[in-house]
Design a protein that fits this description.
By secondary structure, the protein is an alpha+beta fold. It has 6 helices and 4 strands; from the N terminus they run H-H-E-H-H-E-H-E-E-H. Helix content is 56%, strand content 20%. The longest helix is centred in the first third of the chain and has 82 residues. The protein starts with 8 loop residues before the first helix and ends with a helix.
Length: 235
């Protein structure tokens, strides 16, 4: 039996064309939806990264502020330490005139001073030895230690220069200073020959330290001052 198609070809072509157009529109809609979804996703990620960046910038600003405050505290601490050192230098444990009188009184015959320098320094920190066992560590009581101010820990170093007829007078001067109650740690730095015109002398340099927590009575002060007057009258 013959199958006769009564549908015109133009109708068939137009139907296929409409289907093709519909498929294209559907594909276009899918592509546009995908692009819109990608755009929204990118925007959301940008916002998330922007929020993280703001958070990181806030933390960086806080860290910078903390560093700035720490530097200010360090600068204030250094300034306070400098002021404390200056104050400690102004507060002389022993008047310089009294120290000079003591150094002059102890001069042997023929010895004279040419140089005297006082310098205050911080002592070298001494590290504590570690406890040998747990018993010693438990027995150690940190609260028993009495804190000392940095001013009290300052050491006064004395540089002494002078001339003497011979090394015997230099040795005698060192012995007298060692027996003094004002200075300690007397040491000879150098002693070399020195000529003045036709006379030969010994030019010497000594170092010493001022005794800490010196307690002088009125009798000691009067004795030192009277010895200074006598030495001045003798010269």
């Amino acid at each position: 039996m013959l199958n006769i198609n009564f549908v015109p070809d133009d109708y068939v072509q137009s139907s296929e064309s409409r289907r093709a157009n519909l498929m294209c529109l559907v594909l276009l809609a899918i592509v546009m939806a995908a692009l819109a979804g990608s755009f929204v996703t990118i925007k959301m990620r940008q916002r998330a990264f922007g929020a993280k960046e703001k958070l990181v910038n806030t933390k960086i600003a806080q860290v910078r502020e903390t560093i700035r405050q720490f530097e200010e505290l360090q600068a204030k601490r250094k300034e306070m330490m400098k002021t404390a050192l200056v104050t400690a230098q102004l507060l002389e444990p022993v008047p310089k005139s009294l120290l000079l009188a003591s150094l002059t009184n102890n001069l042997p015959a023929g010895v004279s001073l040419t140089e005297l320098k006082l310098t205050q320094k911080e002592p070298r920190t001494v590290r504590r030895s570690a406890p040998a066992n747990k018993y010693q560590a438990a027995k150690a009581d940190p609260s028993a230690e009495t804190p000392m101010s940095r001013e009290k820990l300052l050491e006064t170093h004395i540089d002494i220069g002078g001339i003497a007829p011979s090394d015997l007078q230099v040795a005698a001067y060192i012995e007298r200073l060692t027996g003094s109650n004002l200075v300690t740690n007397v040491a000879l730095v150098e002693s070399k020959e020195y000529k003045i015109e036709d006379t030969t002398f010994r030019k010497f340099k000594l170092t010493a330290m001022l005794q800490k927590e010196v307690q002088l009575t009125r009798e000691d002060v009067e004795r030192i001052r009277s010895g200074r007057k006598a030495a001045t009258q003798t010269f």
